[in-house]
Write a sequence for this structure.
């Protein structure tokens, strides 16, 4: 590293003076100082700083996923950066408790001065959703207006460009599509697995049909849900049926990606599958914390303004609540647990297949 002609100074390097000059409560300008507005401003500015760091990590991950082949070392990098995003998300959750030290009456002292500004206009948060893989068709609209309606031209351009680029979901889906061990010759896993899960599902059906504590109506409802469950399970082994579910918005992963995911989850103890399994669980956790943040945000809105309209013109709490319950980006991974089996009941992998999924540093005795 070359020697600098001028020594760095903490204040100058972090531009502390600039940073601390960015908190300018509107209430002060209006001659009615609302003490809590400073907390409101700082909390949301810190949110935006953390969003910037999350996007920085996410962009580096998306760059790796653009490669035709991802080596083991890069999988470690991807996982470590997603874990960093998750740790940041935990901080975002904690910030809500700090903001809630402000009472509803304190907030009302300056709330009307914010109109029409709203967190709905956070470009970075919208970018985060897009880059994770949220589709425009899955967004919740209010007044039938596009979510970009109240943004300026440059903000709309940034989001429109991001929507045209591959997302994290796209990168993961393509990576799973390239999984090599699905097509190994002589591997009859799917036949054995389908029989084992089908039997398990049938046993569950027999149990509730024979349950004397359930009414006839309850049994009919459970049977209806069970038939849908079984239909979705069979689609895992039928490309055409799977594509119908994708077309109807019931699934997003491709046919091969769905099978690869299932295999990774079921045989995660195999050495080669450790990092892929960690990646899939990290993606689930990342979305879980995002959903948790949305939920706490909606609850805070209910506490602060009840059922009043939001400052940006949205229905407020009801809109925020709807976004929490909206479609999840990585829901396919979570739904797969429906078809898991205990380790003891998993079909045994052929020995030559196990060798492809493991790391061997000593000679194996092929007679065993």
């Amino acid at each position: 590293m070359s020697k600098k002609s001028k020594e760095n100074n903490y204040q100058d390097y972090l531009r502390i003076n600039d940073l601390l000059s960015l908190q300018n409560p509107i209430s002060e300008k209006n001659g009615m100082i609302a003490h809590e507005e400073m907390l409101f401003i700082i909390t949301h500015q810190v949110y935006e700083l953390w969003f910037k760091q999350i996007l920085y990590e996410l962009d580096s991950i998306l760059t790796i996923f653009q490669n035709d082949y991802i080596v083991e070392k890069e999988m470690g990098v991807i996982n470590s950066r997603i874990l960093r995003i998750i740790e940041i998300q935990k901080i975002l959750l904690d910030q809500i408790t700090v903001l809630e030290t402000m009472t509803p009456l304190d907030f009302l002292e300056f709330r009307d001065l914010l109109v029409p500004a709203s967190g709905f206009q956070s470009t970075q948060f919208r970018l985060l959703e897009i880059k994770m893989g949220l589709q425009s068709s899955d967004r919740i609209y209010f007044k039938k207006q596009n979510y970009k309606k109240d943004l300026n031209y440059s903000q709309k351009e940034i989001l429109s460009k991001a929507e045209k680029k591959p997302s994290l979901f796209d990168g993961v889906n393509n990576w799973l599509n390239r999984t090599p061990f699905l097509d190994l010759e002589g591997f009859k896993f799917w036949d054995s697995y389908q029989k084992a899960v089908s039997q398990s599902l049938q046993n569950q059906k027999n149990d509730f049909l024979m349950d004397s504590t359930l009414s006839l109506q309850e049994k009919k409802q459970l049977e209806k849900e069970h038939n849908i469950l079984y239909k979705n399970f069979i689609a895992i082994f039928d490309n055409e049926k799977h594509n119908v579910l994708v077309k109807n918005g019931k699934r997003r992963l491709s046919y091969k990606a769905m099978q690869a995911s299932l295999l990774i989850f079921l045989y995660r103890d195999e050495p080669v599958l450790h990092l892929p399994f960690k990646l899939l669980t990290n993606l689930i956790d990342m979305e879980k914390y995002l959903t948790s943040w949305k939920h706490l945000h909606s609850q805070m809105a209910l506490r602060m303004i009840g059922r009043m309209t939001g400052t940006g013109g949205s229905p407020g709490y009801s809109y925020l609540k709807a976004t929490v319950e909206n479609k999840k980006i990585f829901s396919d991974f979570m739904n797969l647990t429906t078809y898991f089996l205990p380790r003891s009941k998993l079909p045994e992998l052929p020995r030559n297949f196990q060798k492809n999924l493991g790391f061997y540093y000593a000679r194996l005795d092929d007679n065993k």
Remarks:
- Residues 360-368 have pLDDT under 50 and may be disordered.
- The chain has 18 helices and no strands.
- The first helix runs from residue 10 to 13.
- The CA atoms of residues 148 and 160 lie 9 Å apart.
